[in-house]
């Protein structure tokens, strides 16, 4: 397998592993008035004292600024790591470039004389670690023909001699992360939280202790082994062979701030712990860089993540070192080595501020913020959202959140840029809350830079107040005669009923609960539930009646075992997820949204090739179309109109849209076309077990025919199929009762009408 093939397989395997294994912070500006080397020891914090008072006079000035240096020629992200050696040379390693040394802190590099290529040509390097003495350890993963993964621990001592140990433990668990303290002291961790030492001499791994979770990473401070995880930093003394007392302030920070940020099984880290001078620790994560005196009561923020590379969601952290000067070097999955240098003349927080808001935490916004911040270091981009990803605050409803936003916009205190996903754009444009983006749209259309039919989704006679940066396509996928037979919900119900007669067992559509059935079906149908500001009761009634037909036919053949595996699924399936189930012979016709060329259309392409299925735009009651995503708007009352418009332009531009890996096809044409560009081979897969039977499905890049077809459909999609989120929630709430037999359609429509009456009248 050549290097390009290895890299592609490695990246997606790491992603899949992530998917499968699935206190207040005291933010002082102490370090912002001095270089990190000059920050006092802060021992006094044990008594509750702090340096806030003495530093308040300089808190407004002083900030760590970024600069970059290109990484060595031929560098690759596979197995990337870096450390400072005991002789003050900087050491770098990755699977492609090998082991390199620098005597000028990363400005120039030369190969290590002792290193010979120890990386096998098949498989990939999951992660690696360099000890201060220059020895190296790496975790190498190989896939056997039966798709079993074999983990080997490969090392190189200071003389350049290769050594190897099987990473599997006696109980079948395996080491997938490795860390080196010296050529004789190396350690590894397993997904289940086992921490082991590597016994090179006897060719085995020895269990030291077990944590409740796998640590994100491990570091060394004297005889202590520090294990960073979601619940804090566990400390093990290797000489005493015992765990030490926990640092409660550090643990509280991790519990409250690292949850959801740690990568767990990928080749990079979501958080880094770095021992510093004396009893100091440095913690880095997407919220920034912090300094903490062990057992003190302060987590001191040195670098703010939102306007630094720490907060860039496109960059995984691979390693970090602190230089004697007090500067920091950060190694990421990007193309450059990043240096943080303290500048006392820079404002601690940029004076210009740009406020961005979304209802739910949005990955695309975070990516755009990181790029915008680098291009505009004098602007502080502040991002606020109501709901965190996968963790909603039950005390705040969507209606409450939207009312708060309305008040802020009308009073002029609201955000400058608004991501309107999950909101009714017409409410804000109709009340004059949004700025006219017609000049932006005209420029993009004149340059033929975007899909005009999609970018113009919100174009009105009096202006364009919203522009979507991405979109998804609702598609039907199945046998040609079945796909062609679907014209609306009634004909879809007829096809499902026919397929049930032909297939007595298993799901027909892939929905395994009433909620999931409704979520799938409303993708293309909820757009027709409103007639102006009035609820179209006939349209809602028809939807529920047809959904009931489909659900009854669907559930007749679903087994108890299938319900145990998929019955609690809360979200609608993507088309890629449905295709995976189809290849496992679980469903017969798919109606779902596609928003990613690899994850969705790669899976679809596999089924097209193997089963001869076809796909087309999914017609709802109003016709065929697209679902706009990342819907951008600028507040009419914003005092930062120019910066806000520039941010919108960035999110619609080719540079950002090419790098965006969030959900949604890019509306930018050049970025859309770049999805055809592939890096060697790619292999993805998933598996499940139902009724004692193992099912597996793997796929790679979509074929050229499939990508061409997707572009054709994107260009011919007629209308926006976006519905009203408040109305959709009400239909799901009462529709579930209809499908499960506890409420009639007529009663459900009355309940929906009553629940949404006030909202629709506003």
Automatic annotation (TrEMBL):
InterPro entries named in the record: Bact_solute-bd_prot1 (IPR050490), SBP (IPR006059)
PROSITE patterns named among the record's database cross-references: PROKAR_LIPOPROTEIN
Superkingdom classification of source: Bacteria
The protein's name: Bacterial extracellular solute-binding protein
Region (Disordered): 38-57
Comp. bias intervals (Acidic residues): 44-55
């Amino acid at each position: 397998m050549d290097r390009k093939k290895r890299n592609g397989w490695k990246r997606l395997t790491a992603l899949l592993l992530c998917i499968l294994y699935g206190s207040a912070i005291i933010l002082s500006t102490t370090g912002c008035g001095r270089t990190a080397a000059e920050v006092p020891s802060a021992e006094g914090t044990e008594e509750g004292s702090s340096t806030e008072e003495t530093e308040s006079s300089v808190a407004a000035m002083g900030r760590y600024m970024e600069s970059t240096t290109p990484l060595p020629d031929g560098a690759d992200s596979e197995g990337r790591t870096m450390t400072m050696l005991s002789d003050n040379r900087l050491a770098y390693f990755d699977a492609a470039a090998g082991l390199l040394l620098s005597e000028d802190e990363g400005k120039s590099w030369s190969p290590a004389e002792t290193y010979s290529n120890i990386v096998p040509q098949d498989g990939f390097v999951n992660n690696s670690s360099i000890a201060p003495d220059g020895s190296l350890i790496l975790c190498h993963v190989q896939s056997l023909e039966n798709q079993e993964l074999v983990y080997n621990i490969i090392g190189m001592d200071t003389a350049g001699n290769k050594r190897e140990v099987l990473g599997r433990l006696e109980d079948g668990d395996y080491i997938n992360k490795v860390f080196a303290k010296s050529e004789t002291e190396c350690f590894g961790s397993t997904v289940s939280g086992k921490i082991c030492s590597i016994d090179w001499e006897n060719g085995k791994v020895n269990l030291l202790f077990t944590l409740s979770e796998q640590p994100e990473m491990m570091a060394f401070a004297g005889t202590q082994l520090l294990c960073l995880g979601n619940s804090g930093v566990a400390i093990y003394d290797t000489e005493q062979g015992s765990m030490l007392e926990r640092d409660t302030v550090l643990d509280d920070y991790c519990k409250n701030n690292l949850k959801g940020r740690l990568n767990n099984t990928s080749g990079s880290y979501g958080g880094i712990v770095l021992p510093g001078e004396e009893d100091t620790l440095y913690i880095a994560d997407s919220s920034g860089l912090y300094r903490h005196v062990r057992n003190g009561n302060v987590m001191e923020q040195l670098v703010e993540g939102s306007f630094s590379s720490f907060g860039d969601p496109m960059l995984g952290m691979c390693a970090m070192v602190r230089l004697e000067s007090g500067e920091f070097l950060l190694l990421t999955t990007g193309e450059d080595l990043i240096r943080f240098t303290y500048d006392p003349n820079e404002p601690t927080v940029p004076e210009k501020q740009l406020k961005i808001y979304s209802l739910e935490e949005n990955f695309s916004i975070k990516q755009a913020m990181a790029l915008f911040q680098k291009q505009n270091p004098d602007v502080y981009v502040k991002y606020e959202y109501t709901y965190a990803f996968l963790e909603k605050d039950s005390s705040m409803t969507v209606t409450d959140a939207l009312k708060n936003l309305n008040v802020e916009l009308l009073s002029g205190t609201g955000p400058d840029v608004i991501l309107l996903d999950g909101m009714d754009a017409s409410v804000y444009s109709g009340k004059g809350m949004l700025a006219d983006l017609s000049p932006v749209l005209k420029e993009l259309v004149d340059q033929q830079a975007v899909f005009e039919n999609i970018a113009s989704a919100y174009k009105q006679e009096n202006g364009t107040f919203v522009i979507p940066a991405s979109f998804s396509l609702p598609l039907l996928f199945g046998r040609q005669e079945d796909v062609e037979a679907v014209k609306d919900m009634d004909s879809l119900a007829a096809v499902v009923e026919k397929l049930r007669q032909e297939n007595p067992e298993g799901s027909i559509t892939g929905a395994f609960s009433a909620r999931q059935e409704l979520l799938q079906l409303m993708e293309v149908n909820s757009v027709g539930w409103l007639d102006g500001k009035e609820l179209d009761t006939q349209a809602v009634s028809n939807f529920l009646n047809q959904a009931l037909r489909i659900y009854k036919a669907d559930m007749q053949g679903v087994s108890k075992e299938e319900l145990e595996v998929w019955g609690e699924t809360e979200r609608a399936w993507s088309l890629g997820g449905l295709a995976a189930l189809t290849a496992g012979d679980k469903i017969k016709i798919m109606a779902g949204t596609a928003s990613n060329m690899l994850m969705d259309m790669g899976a679809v392409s596999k089924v097209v090739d193997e089963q001869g299925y076809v796909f087309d735009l999914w017609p709802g009651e109003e016709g065929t179309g697209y679902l706009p995503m990342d819907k951008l708007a600028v507040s009419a009352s914003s005092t930062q109109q120019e910066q806000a418009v520039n941010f919108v332009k960035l999110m619609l531009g080719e540079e950002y849209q090419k790098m965006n890996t969030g959900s949604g096809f890019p509306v930018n044409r050049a970025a859309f076309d770049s999805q055809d560009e592939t890096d060697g081979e790619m292999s993805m897969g998933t598996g499940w077990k139902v009724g004692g039977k193992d099912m597996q499905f793997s796929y790679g890049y979509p074929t050229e025919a499939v990508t061409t077809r997707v572009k054709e459909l994107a260009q011919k999609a007629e209308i926006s199929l976006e519905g009203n989120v408040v109305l959709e929630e009400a239909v799901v709430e009462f529709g579930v009762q209809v499908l499960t037999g506890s409420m009639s359609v007529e009663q459900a429509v009355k309940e929906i009408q009553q629940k949404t009456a006030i909202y629709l009248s506003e």
